[in-house]
Amino acid sequence: MGGGKTKKPLSVMDKEARKRAKELLKKAPTKEAKEAKERRVSVEISDQLIKKASKVVSEAKVTTPSSLAASLGVKLSIARALIRELVKSGSISLVSKYRGLIVVKPLTKS
């Protein structure tokens, strides 16, 4: 009588298990990391912080995210998000935007 079907060697089974685990690690964090980042930025931007940023921008000729972050004492990513919010609301105007650098100025009152 013939024997049954032979099993795969342990080395092959181990290699397959490591490959599956590696694929799971690659896929899972990217989606969760994006959601966590979006939540963090939206939580930390308050109306009070937007008002402070608006005041700082109105006092200077031009403002960049780094100068806004330094004057408010917040992270650079928060400063960029604040500038995006202020431009969207129309309280400041965008002068130039290139890669990581955003230059804005206060609206002129006529």
Name the average pLDDT: 83
- Looking across the biggest beta sheet, what order are the strands in? 1-2
- Count the E strands: 2
Largest sheet: 2 strands, antiparallel
CATH H level, superfamily name of the largest domain = Winged helix-like DNA-binding domain superfamily/Winged helix DNA-binding domain
Class by alpha and beta content: mainly alpha
Proportion of strand residues: 5-15%
Low-confidence stretches: none
SSE order: HHHHEE
Rg value: 26 Å
Given the C-alpha coordinates, what overall shape results?
rod-shaped
CATH topology group of the largest domain: Arc Repressor Mutant, subunit A
Can you tell me the CATH architecture of the largest domain? Orthogonal Bundle
Tally the structural domains. 2
Q: DSSP helix count?
A: 4
| N→C terminal distance | 99 Å
Question: CATH top level of the largest domain?
Answer: Mainly Alpha
Can you give the helix content as a percent range? 55-70%
Compact summary:
The chain has 110 residues and is mostly helical.
What features would you highlight for this structure?
Arc Repressor Mutant, subunit A, rod-shaped, two-stranded antiparallel sheet, 12% strand, 64% helix, 110 residues, 4 helices, 2 domains, mainly alpha
